[in-house]
Amino acid sequence: MRTWIAVCAGLAGVSPLAAQSEAARLSERARQDREIVYFLRQPETHAFDLYHDYTEWREGQSTYLNVVRAGSTVSNPSAVILDTGEKLATEILRGAAITQAGIDIGQPAGPETEVVVIRFPAVSKGRSVRLRISETYTDSSRYGLRGDELVWDRAFGRPRNAVVLPYGWYLTVSSIPAAVSETPDGRIRLDFENPRPDEIAVLLRARRR
Description:
The chain is mainly beta and 209 residues long. The chain has helices spanning 2-9, 16-25, 96-100; strands spanning 35-40, 47-56, 63-67, 73-81, 87-88, 90-94, 114-119, 129-138, 143-146, 149-156, 160-164, 169-174, 179-182, 188-193, 200-208. It contains three helices and 15 strands.
């Protein structure tokens, strides 16, 4: 698969950007290992905590970038190498600071653009590093109360995604099939598998118990 992508990227008339996009689309979904878990705070806050796990295996890679989607704000980022427990330095860059730092996020950085930057020791040849990144987000347009109902309306692009409802809420509807379970502390958890190369639009509703 990697050989085929390299050949495709070199085809005459294919721009570097288009080739990069094709390479991402043709990446084997079964080998992607990014997992994310959302822990919803009470909906009045519009806030949720999350962690996402990620394995970096590319030789020389030493930076992880998490571009915050428009409409959300991020706070309290932290990161750790799961293999060793080592804590990593993190920073949030906004607007012009992204360009000034020489960071390429794959798109133009506007005044409202936010990116979480995490640096780790460069990956050596034949090795890998497993990272866990934790953050808190606020997103009033996609998470909150609608009347007396909790409403969560966000798209998931990763292969494995999970949402844990706030304590005291039960699920009434989900637009996408999920495995529903109860956590040890009595919260409802939904696990989503996304085998598609694009996003799944997850709309959840819940009510107070």
